[in-house]
Amino acid sequence: MQNRFIALMNSMAIVWGITKIWQFLELLFYREIQARKVDDIIAAIFLVILYIYERRLQEE
Length: 60
Prior knowledge:
Blueprint: H1 2-30, H2 37-59
């Protein structure tokens, strides 16, 4: 259970970091942060994929 929690936290941290970098680039290029639901959906899918990947790595 603890390994799954750690994997989830790692995945969330990675997604959060990518999101912050993406927002910085949007501010740099567009001078505003674009609000898009598609990005939220893609980030959620990415989070699930990272969670599964981390889980498989820790099971080995």
